[in-house]
Design brief:
Chain lengths: 398, 674, 150
């Protein structure tokens, strides 16, 4: 394979730089076929591993159409054979690579990137050794909800699903018999299906906080569906892309102006929708104490929400757990009070906590109630840059 | 009271095992006993689990009260002691020592304040006060059960001292320390030592010539083998902690070699540049290269590069070839065990606010300017003249409390202005009996030896005292005389006075450098902008930073004898450390539990003393580098503990569970009666 | 205010319980000074001493509310006067976060208060306790107070 890459040389030597945009695709046909959008991300990750830019790569190993598990691998073939993106695998990679001291490259949705950066601020991830390939993300779906949605809304058996696609505001499922089933996302979400709630009001659609931001928005004309649009957002990102080109894994060209404009338009529309959702979900309310007590009533103190939280860097022992006693939490949970406080500046709204809650407490929604005012007031966006969480500042200027 | 019948073989210093609490309720005469029903309190507290004995004393702090504690410790094999009395801020050390004598760790004492925080503030609500006392002691008992033994640790002390500021206070401190045999570095930012006192003409109440008494002291400092004077130098960085301070001193370039300069001032004679002479408060001029004043120590010239025109005339004139125009700042690194700050003050500047016409009218001057005019070595050779026409004034008015005792400037009393005004009036009156003096004052304050006598003397000399503050000061455009409208508040009448010269008794204010020294030494500042002592009464020259002491006006207005005493006091306090060659550091510190620490490092910027460092290597096989507290640097504030998200950081003696024990016991369950 | 009238019956003889966290150097001294000056105040506050207001852990504040505090006071040295250089700057930040939780949770703002009180400001301390007690008497016991707790 490496011999193969020797033969395909880039036409002219391009020196990648921060701030530049390209459209590119994998040079490997099988990768192009299996992965979406020309397989650029998969090939770029494989090249990073191949050329020892990193020691490991995180990829999704597909179990079925609704399940995939993230794995850390050093095997180039495993990377090349990995799943690509799935809309119903909303796992967060930040904690996966935390405290492992890895030299790693990984694909990451906006919230993954934010989690990784927050872990970086807390010394759990060395960002200098972490190459973050950001993926545009319009939202992801909870696998359990997706199954239910297929049966209730689409009237198809989840097992029959062969592929999925989003086009013109519609979520399309392709069944094994070759038929396409389409319903608008608006309609799905109206009925409580579709994207996870936190994704609806998320406004990080193009992850410019990653080292390189990749996605299919802005790929136009003949290349549509066959290439990936990339924006280099850091020196590391430039290195990653350059490495893949030099290794012969990918080819790139400059995007056309129409593409660049289209991409930023989609971004704007998506962000606007996110903001609308935010206003819709977080309506001011009276009787808040009663609301929180009601919502937290069923909490069984399993601690799953903390374990999965990508911004929490505590181990098993932490203030929220050690000083929580059910007896004292007679009217309100101490565990959640401490988490409300600790997450006020750090919550990235990834939705993981709500996903894993065994008693279905809409935790992200609760945490955001506390985080929204603080983050707005302090003009702090966790996971977007290296600014320290304000709670740990010695003096606040704002 | 539940007297114990159980085994008495428990080791009293073992932290594990049964907690045996003794509670000692003090009546403080009637201070507590007159309000709180101490018997009822003791009875209730005796029912709490773990309380083995309770006792009520008239004065727990008295010998018999302390003996009672010690006897009960023995008798009941107590391992925790709760004293419910006054404020721990005054009496905690007493009782800590008391239980330590019995072999108990001193941190096994819990002090509950039922006087200042209870009986004194609820004097008319005896029942509520009694209930509150019960709550407070219950909180204390539960906390006491969780107290852990602590050991204060020792650090070695370098037996050298740094004195910052070579005014009269700093000089005294340096001399005392040097005479006791310790090496002293005396850093002064001006080219000469001597400070403000060197500028005074005479000093009250005895009216000695200031430089005549200070000069010999300055020479003594220079001659002392144990003192290294670093004049024209400033402290730039301070690192470390008690016993082991690393200090970086910058030596500003004098642009001449001090080892060659003889102070002959030939250079000044030829220098063509003249600038206002700051030593004379801007009266008269000095050259761009000059010897600060005739009695300067070290008696060396200094070149003021800002005003130098590089004509090189001085280099030609200098017979020893000392001039060096390319001189660069030098630096010295010092390692000292203690630091004495005697950084001084400046006088209030009435110019920006034009207090009483200062800065608008020529014949309104400050007392410091008057002082230089009086001085035989001053710009006029000792003739007091008025600036507008250089005539000697006949009618002189003095306004007291300018920049003092005034909400618009500084609310505090500067303490010295009454006396120096009295002195100034006396001196001029003696020199020229035909002069007429009126002192306009708010109150005359003459508290110390000879002060009241001096005041009487000036009255006898004919100095007039008018109680009132000028409401209007105007200049006669022709004569340039100063017209003052003032209410004589004793006679209850408005007076319109005319003076040839008006002298403002400007107060004491912090100088610009005080913030820098505050930050370098990590000191606190009081509301008046001057530096704060550890305790205003009982530790007046100590600071909250171990090994750092304050002398002189930097910590509040003082006169000369007071400043000198403080210099000596600092030397004496410092000697305790220097002589013992060791210091005891705070027993209450932050502690990291590495098993819990996640290595996130958020605690590092919380510490203003840089006491937390991340380990260089990962802890055991965790792969995580953990936080580590440098005990000698930790002052035990616990701010890092609050920030720590895991709870790995704990503050000894104020551990989370110890504080929470109090929080939980503020409340008690009461059966709800339907 | 109409709420005042509505709350009036509750306040009959009812004394709120207020947990006041004080720093060793300033506000605790302020409470001492209040005593020395005999500034009378309601017997509602229970003072808990910590070395620095920076040590007032939100954890402790939450715990006080869960245990039954009708109000919690966070007090320390005036800004610029901290015995530990800038502990109170950090208190200010922690308090901001605490305040946010308490507000969003739906507790009345009177239930959590911050005040800088120096060791010499005894009268200020007494007035503060009196004011807070009055405010709390108007709004009644904390909704987080467990039943049967006094």
């Amino acid at each position: 394979m490496s011999q193969d890459s020797q033969t395909i040389k880039t036409a002219h030597q391009i020196v990648m730089q921060k701030g530049e945009m390209y459209v590119g695709w994998s040079t490997k046909e099988d990768v192009r076929k299996r992965g979406g959008s020309g397989g650029l991300v998969t090939s770029m990750l494989a090249a990073a591993l191949e050329k020892k830019l990193v020691d490991a790569v995180v990829v999704l190993k597909k179990m079925n159409e609704f399940e995939a598990v993230p794995i850390i691998t050093s095997d180039v073939n495993e990377v090349l054979n990995s799943a690509g993106s799935l809309h119903s695998v909303p796992s967060n990679f930040a904690k996966l690579i935390a405290n492992r001291n890895l030299k790693v490259a990984l694909p990451a949705k906006g919230c993954d990137v934010r989690g990784i950066i927050e872990q970086g601020k807390r010394n759990a991830i060395n960002l200098d050794n972490t190459f973050i390939v950001g993926l545009n993300c319009g939202g992801s779906m909870h696998p359990v909800v997706t199954r239910e949605m297929l049966e209730v809304m689409y009237k198809i058996k989840p097992e029959d699903v062969h592929g999925e696609e989003i086009e013109k505001g519609k979520l399309i499922f392709e069944t094994k018999d070759g038929k396409e089933h389409a319903i608008t996302i608006d309609e799905l979400e109206e009925k409580g299906y579709g994207r996870r709630e936190s994704c609806r009001y998320c406004t990080i659609k193009i992850p410019n906080n990653a080292d390189i931001a990749c996605g299919n928005w802005g790929v136009t004309g003949d290349l549509a569906g066959k290439a990936t649009f990339v924006e280099i957002t850091s020196e590391k990102g430039a290195k990653l892309l350059q490495n893949a080109i030099d290794a012969g894994y990918i080819q790139v060209q400059k995007p056309d102006e129409k593409g660049v404009a289209a991409r930023s338009k989609i971004k704007g529309v998506m962000e606007g929708l996110g903001k609308k959702w935010k206003d819709k979900v977080f309506v001011p309310m009276d009787n808040r104490l009663e609301y929180f007590r009601k919502e937290l009533e069923n909490c069984i103190d399993c601690g799953a929400c903390k374990a999965v939280c990508p911004t929490c860097s505590c181990g098993d022992v932490s203030k929220c757990t050690e000083f929580h006693f059910r007896g004292d939490a007679y009217r309100m949970s101490m565990y959640h009070l401490v988490r409300f406080l600790h997450l006020a500046d750090s919550c990235i709204g990834c939705g993981q906590c709500a996903d894993v809650c065994p008693v279905d407490i809409p935790l992200t929604r609760l945490y955001r109630r506390f985080a929204n005012p603080v983050q707005e007031q302090l003009k702090y966006e966790p996971g977007m840059d290296m600014r320290k969480p304000p709670f740990f500042e010695a003096k606040l200027e704002v | 009271m539940s007297d114990s019948t159980e085994s008495k073989s428990t080791d009293i210093n073992k932290d594990s095992g049964e907690k045996r609490v003794g509670v000692f309720v003090c009546e403080c005469g009637v201070n507590i006993g007159g309000v709180v029903n101490t018997k009822a309190v003791a009875e209730y507290i005796g029912t709490l689990p773990g309380v083995k004995v309770t006792s009520v004393n008239k004065f727990t702090c008295s010998d018999s009260g302390q003996a009672d504690i010690q006897n009960k410790i023995k008798e009941h094999n107590l391992n925790r002691v709760v004293v419910a009395a006054c404020s721990p801020k005054t009496h905690e050390p007493t009782f800590r020592a008391c239980i330590e004598q019995m072999g108990l760790n001193q941190y096994f004492l819990e002090f509950v304040n039922i006087r200042d925080h209870c009986s004194w503030i609820h004097m008319w609500e005896k029942e509520k006060a009694t209930e509150k006392a019960k709550d407070l002691i219950r909180m204390g008992v539960e906390r006491a059960k969780l107290l852990e033994p602590l050991q204060a640790s020792e650090v070695p002390v370098t037996d050298k001292a740094l004195v910052v500021g070579a005014g009269v206070a700093g000089m005294q401190a340096a001399l005392d320390l040097a005479d006791m045999g310790f090496q002293v570095y005396l850093v002064e930012k001006e080219p000469s030592i001597g400070g403000r006192m060197a500028r005074f003409d005479k000093v009250f109440p005895t009216n000695d010539c200031s430089i005549c008494i200070l000069g010999p002291k300055m020479v003594e400092v220079a001659r002392n083998k144990n003192i290294k004077i670093m004049s024209y130098s400033e402290v730039k960085a301070v690192d470390g902690y008690v016993g082991n301070f690393n200090v970086k001193v910058e030596h500003k370039p004098r642009y001449l070699d001090v080892t060659k300069c003889t102070g002959c001032a030939k250079c000044s004679e030829v220098c063509p540049v003249e600038v206002p002479y700051d030593f004379n408060e801007g009266f008269g001029t000095r050259k761009a290269i000059y010897v600060p004043f005739p009695q300067a120590v070290p008696l060396r010239a200094v070149l003021d590069k800002e005003n130098c025109i590089s004509c090189k005339a001085c280099a030609k004139a200098c017979q020893s070839g000392a001039i060096n125009y390319d001189m660069q700042p030098g630096f010295t690194d010092l390692n000292v065990g203690v630091i004495i700050g005697a950084v001084g003050f400046k006088t209030y500047d009435p110019e920006p606010r034009h207090d009483f016409g200062y800065g608008l009218y020529d014949n309104v001057i400050t007392a410091m300017e008057f002082e230089r005019l009086l001085n035989a070595a001053g710009p006029t050779g000792g003739h007091v003249v008025r600036p507008s026409d250089c005539k000697e004034p006949i009618r002189v008015g003095f306004v007291n409390c300018v920049g003092s005792r005034d909400k618009a400037t500084n609310i505090y009393c500067s303490g010295v202005c009454c006396m120096y005004t009295i002195k100034n009036a006396q001196l001029l009156k003696e020199k020229r009996p035909e002069t007429d003096h009126t002192i306009m004052y708010m109150d005359i304050r003459t508290p110390f030896r000879g002060y009241e006598e001096s005041y009487n003397r000036s009255r006898n000399l004919g100095v007039k005292f008018l109680r009132g503050r000028p409401s209007e000061v105007k200049e006669d455009p022709v004569t340039k005389n100063i017209k003052v409208r003032v209410e004589d508040t004793l006679a209850n009448e408005i007076r319109n006075l005319e003076f040839d010269l008006l002298v403002l008794a400007t107060g004491i204010v912090p100088h610009e450098g005080i913030n820098q020294i505050q930050q370098l030494l990590k000191l606190s500042k009081a509301a008046d902008g001057l530096l704060m002592e550890a305790h205003p009464k009982l530790r007046p020259v100590d600071t909250t930073i171990d090994g750092v002491f304050l002398a002189g006006v930097a910590s509040g207005p003082k006169d000369i004898p007071y400043a000198v005493s403080q210099g000596s006091a600092c030397a004496s306090r410092a000697t305790i450390l220097l002589k013992n060659k060791k210091a005891i550091t705070e027993g209450i510190t932050a502690v990291v539990n590495p098993d819990v620490c996640a290595g996130c490092g958020v605690c590092l910027p919380m510490c203003p003393f840089q006491a937390i460092k991340m380990d260089e290597t990962p802890y055991l096989n965790t792969g995580i580098k953990k936080a580590n507290v440098v005990k000698a640097l930790c002052k035990g504030c616990g701010t890092c503990v609050t920030a720590c998200p895991t709870g790995a950081l704990e503050q000894s003696h104020f551990k989370n569970e110890q504080v929470l024990a109090q929080v939980k016991n503020v409340f008690k369950f009461q059966e709800v009666v339907a | 205010m109409s709420s005042e009238a509505a709350a009036a019956p509750k306040t009959n003889g009812w004394e709120p319980k207020i947990v006041a966290f004080c720093c060793n150097w300033c506000s605790y001294g302020g409470a001492d000074s209040a005593g020395m000056g005999r500034f009378q105040q309601p017997a509602s506050a229970r003072i808990i001493r910590v070395m620095c207001s920076g040590r007032i852990d939100p954890l402790h504040v939450f715990n006080a509310f869960l245990e039954g505090a009708d109000a919690v006071l966070v007090t320390g040295c005036h800004i610029g006067d901290c015995h530990y250089v800038n502990g109170n700057d950090k208190t200010k930040i922690k308090y901001k976060f605490l305040e946010n939780v308490v507000r969003e949770l739906g507790l009345e703002k009177e239930r959590l208060q911050l005040n800088w009180i120096s060791a010499s400001e005894g009268e200020k301390f007494a007035n503060f306790i009196r004011d807070v007690t009055e405010q709390i008497k108007k709004i009644g016991p904390s909704p987080l107070k467990p039943e049967g707790v006094v």
